[in-house]
Every structure is written in structure tokens, then in C-alpha cells.
Amino acid sequence: LHTKILFWKGDHVGMIEYGPPEAVGLPISGESIIIMNCIWIHRKAQGQSFGKMLIDDMIRSEEQAGGFATLALEDYWMVWIQKWMIEHLGFRSIDSIKLKHKTYKKGQCFKVHLMWRSISDNVTPPTWDKFQLLDGINYCHHHPLYWGKYGCAKSGLTKIHEEC
Fold first, then answer.
1. For residue 2, what are the β-bridge partners?
2. Which domains are delineated in the chain?
3. Are the beta carbons of 33 and 123 closer than 8 angstroms?
């Protein structure tokens, strides 16, 4: 697993985290691929192409990879990891599932997309266990799909999302 922190004008303003499928927290699998767990750029540093710079650095450092995958959200109430943002970084949606949260904004549905950026014509796109997302993710308490948000950890729920 690799985590790279971006500094600009003396402040940390961005981060990217990625690795092979067996090392990351997202339910994505495949051969010759790298999974991006997370990418963010602080609001004060947006508009500087830092997201593209972090993606380009990831691609250069993982030259053996045939492609890169991640998850993105659509119609979600938080601004992180939105589909349009990940598309702007060169990824495209290859599958999606429509979910809703069991304890927060109960009536609001959102989509989780499996996003893909192929580097080689000889690589098979990734697959994912989209139903594992019903459990939420457990590797980062800042991630929008983290299982411990919105009282789920206290409620004892094992599945925090359901299909919409």
C-alpha cells in the first residue's frame, strides 16, 4: 500500500492512497491492476491540477499495472469521491449499484460506481463484490462509506447499506 502526501506552499493539501487488490480496503479484484483507495485535494489548493498530478505519479510509479480502479459516488450528500471528479481524472464507470443508508438520510438513494482507467489493451477490467458494500468499508473513518459513521457502530448493525 502506498500513501503519498502533497505539500504546497508549506501545507499538506492533498493525498493519494493506492495498492494492489490484496492490500487495499475496497472490494475490487483483478489481475495486473492497482486500486486507488482515496484521493483528495484541499479546497484551498483546487484548480492547480494537483489531482491529475497525483494520478500521473501513481501511474508512473506502478508501470507494471495494466489499469487502475476505484469507487466513486453519485447523488451522495457529501462532496468526497464524486463520480464527476473521478471521471475528470480519466476514469470511467463500468458498473454501479444503487444503495441507501440504514441510519442516515434513510430515504435518499445514491449510486456507487466501479471506476476504471485502462492503461493497456491487454488487461481485463476489474470485478467487485458490490454486495460487500452493504457492510460499509472499515479502513478509513473519513471515507463516505465507512461503517462507523452516523451511529452505525453504536447501533450494532453489521450491514449499514441496503439496495435501493
1. 18
2. 2-163 (3.40.630.30)
3. yes
